[in-house]
Amino acid sequence: MRLELRACKHCYEGEHGNEQKTAVTRDMVDCARCVREYKDLIGLDAVYLTLVEEGDPGGAEALNAIVARIENDQVVLADTQLVMEDQDGHMLVYPEPKDILEVLTRNLNQIQNQTQQDVTVELSEEGEDLLS
């Protein structure tokens, strides 16, 4: 199983001026980095993290699935999404920040059950609120 988090680099760096979105994006990236570090404990083959910049054509590093929506009669690519590929090659795509955080924190919970080390990621208040 492989997993790839694509997150907006501008949101991550706080360039959009939306503090809540920046906090949640940083939470997602922190969780993905921790999952990547301990991926072998839960049977993940690879964990990719891509920070997408404006103008990137989807930003896929490894898993070619892209979420799009129609906005003002134009196709807009999602700049933040979690893509998972299972053993059979099926793709699961999570474009909503709440779902992304939930999947990543569940992976962290599975990792925590497999190790003596503390793999807790301190989520921001915004991230905690999103999950509650």
The main sheet comes to: 4 strands, mixed
Derived from helix and strand composition plus strand pairing, the structural class reads alpha+beta
Tally of individual helices: 4
> Roughly what is the average pLDDT, rounded to an integer?
89
Strand order of the largest sheet: 2-1-5-6
Order of helices and strands: EHHEEEEEHH
Report, as a whole number of angstroms, the end-to-end distance: 28 Å
The structural domain count equals 1
Provide the β-strand percentage band.
Answer: 15-25%
Helix content: 25-40%
Q: What is the number of strand segments? A: 6
The low-confidence runs, each spanning 5 or more residues with pLDDT under 50, are: none
Describe the global form.
globular
Tell me the Rg in angstroms: 15 Å
Features:
6 strands, four-stranded mixed β-sheet, globular, two-stranded antiparallel ribbon, 4 helices, alpha+beta, 132 residues
Task: Describe the structure in your own words.
With 132 residues, this protein is of the alpha+beta class. 35% of the residues lie in helices and 23% in strands. The protein contains four helices and six strands, in the order βααβββββαα. The strands form two sheets. Strands 2-1-5-6 form a four-stranded mixed β-sheet. Strand 3 and strand 4 form a beta hairpin. The model has no long low-confidence stretch (mean pLDDT 89).
Topology summary:
Layout: E1 2-8, H1 9-12, H2 19-37, E2 46-52, E3 68-71, E4 74-77, E5 81-85, E6 91-94, H3 97-112, H4 125-131
Parallel strand pairs: 1-2
Antiparallel strand pairs: 1-5, 3-4, 5-6
Helix pairs in contact: 2-3, 2-4
